[in-house]
Amino acid sequence: MSVRMAAWTAAMRAGRYADAWDLAARTLAERDPATRDDPRVDYHRRWVWDGRPLAGREVLVRCYHGLGDTIMFARFLPALMELATSVTVEVQPRLIDLMVGVAAGARLVPFDVARPLPPAVDVGITELDFALRLPPAAAPPPYLAAAPADLPAGTVALCYGAGDWDGDRSLPPALLEPLCRLRPCVTLMPEPTALPVLNPGGCPFDMAATAALVAGAGLVVTVDTMIAHLAGALGVPTWLLLKAEPDWRWPLAGADSDWYPAMRLYHQPSPGDWAGAVAAVTRDLLELRR
Known about the structure:
Structural class: alpha/beta
CATH superfamily of the largest domain: Glycogen Phosphorylase B
Order of helices and strands: HHEHHEHEEHEHEHEHEEH
Shape: globular
CATH architecture of the largest domain: 3-Layer(aba) Sandwich
CATH topology of the largest domain: Rossmann fold
Strand content: 5-15%
Number of helices: 10
CATH class of the largest domain: Alpha Beta
Radius of gyration: 19 Å
Distance between the termini: 46 Å
Helix content: 25-40%
Low-confidence stretches: none
Number of domains: 3
Strand order of the largest sheet: 6-5-7-8-9
């Protein structure tokens, strides 16, 4: 990691957003314009916004990163639409129905990696805070909505897998078994589980069904993956299990998140110690019963 990237990460973790944007502006000024949206580079590694003003323009928002990134930064779309003449959002197909509310008035187009839309005044959705100079508090949750599933009162929704992007974010599902003894639970994983949950066959690989379970739950306990952002954006109380040194969007210590006020953070006490993090969650869930 470069010195500047390390400084940007530290600023974002600490909530010093103006400092982070200043660092991003210095990086942008040094970039070769010929490398913008470079087709030789994987989508998730591309830079898109070239610094042009977005006010009064026809803006194309490109969602090149993960589903969680799109959900996290979708909060800024209403502010963008107030500035721009028109907004088109090239979004992952699985998210289109979920985005209709927060992107009301924008044109939503499924992102096809083989046939992306032609360039316009482009901005990556994860660049919107920088481009608009808006901190998370300027666009607080809930900014997504979903019809809740009919679940018993107090149901806890569980997610233990974070996919292949960073396997160290996932935890052994058996560690969550004590939570199932305290509350009725559902799994949000798209696979069968041995956990004693209400849906042992797993959660359908369908965004509407997943969002319904999240919206119907009284609490979501999840690792750092799309589910965390979905629950946070819906305003559902969420307890997030984090690696000892988490991603740039989460602080290194403390229980609070600027991005999702209804979220509580649980860091590993030491690298790899998921048992310790889950034990803290279990203790706090016990306290809620009293």
